[in-house]
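Thread: Modeling a multi-component assembly for a lab meeting

Hi all, long-time lurker, first post. My supervisor asked me to bring a structural picture of a complex we are working on to next week's group meeting, and I have zero experience with this. I have the sequence lines for every component (446 residues in total). Could someone generate the structure of the whole assembly? Inputs are pasted exactly as I received them:
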Amino acid sequence: MRTLQGLAAEQQLAISKLQSKYGESVILQDLLEIDHMNSQFGRRAQSIAVLCEGWLGRQRDVASVYDVVRSAQGRIRHFQRVEILSQVDFAVTNRAVEPVALALAELLDNATSYSAPETSVEINVRAVPKGICIVVDDAGVGMNEEEKARAAKLLSSERASGVSGLGNPPQFGFAVIGVLCERYGFTVSVDSTSPYGGVRAVVLLPDELLTSMPQPKERAQTVSTVPSLNPSGPEPAAAASTTADGLPKRRRRRAMAIVPPSSETTGAPMTTGTPIRSEEETASIMGAFQRGTQSGRAALPEPAGRTSNAHDASSEGHEVS
Amino acid sequence: MTDSERQEPEAAELVRPYVITNGRDLPDGDQFSLITLVTAAADHQQRPARLSPEEQSLLEMCSGGYLSVAEIAGHLRLPMGVVKILLNALAEGGYLITRAPVARARLVDEQILQEVLDGLRARFG
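Re: Modeling a multi-component assembly
Sure thing. I ran the full set together rather than chain by chain. Output:
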């Protein structure tokens, strides 16, 4: 039998496929909304599973702390109120990605639920000697001593297991975080006050849960190895098979139709001394010419835009007639 | 983890696209089509530090010359609409320059062709 969180993950994958399939359509907006609701649903299912000692979901790949924070952000209702103000160059180990994201999502849910809708919730990520801290500050009403004591108890190992002792309706945010902290070895404290008078929650991820940043995808590597184009200078005929953007350079297989085919056949006997250009050479010369005109246009974007608009208008007018 | 869990085909992206767009809608007067060309503005070195990784890689990608919106979407592996929302925000911030797609070749008036055809038929047909 599928778990609820498993079904939510499956549905998330289906929604992702729909989003790329209908990415150009107006229904994308609706798909994004459904995705958002599904994420919240998945989080609830995961939280309940955590309290019942169940399965959290499938393991993720190593992800940057920033992405884990944004993943957590996406799992709460008012995610637009969350602002990530600073970040670090660390990643979270694959084992800890989901638990940290889930714990942080519960904190963010509390922060946005117990503060005014027009206030924002700020996240700062800092490197500390023991690891990194994710600091969540809200501008809410804060917690009184009784609430703090309850939170501290739930976050510690003293808590009762199960959902029965969490009230009706159950307030299980802190209990979930407590279980996750114990199981995965990070700590959360909510006993300080934010600069805005609300709650400051601090997640401390120890070094054991951290790793170096994941390897950038291959396209990013290509970009870094190829020197960037100098838009103002002339471009040498590039022998590289990729452009500066990491795109494969297109090679023309045949002569262009506008080039008279006779130029090579008739011209060859007369200029026997000069070798005939290979297709690659011709292509690179054409490419250099095109880049030259492009850099010229890039230098003067305003007039170029205007002339092309004028072209547009004339051609459109023509189609209508 | 049991074996059946390991055999799960794939997971959806960790960071959801609505977070990447920060819940922004595409404005009504959408200036981007699939073939709109985009390049980074010349002074993009002064870009703010608060850009998301997606926006940063988008700007990096466009810094070498003009790229079409379709190519950018392919490289970022994001839905087209999401890319358009990011492009729109970056263009509004002045980090991107957009250029309308190259105008289509002018089509010959069908009526003229018909007249030529009629004339040829009248003469040789």
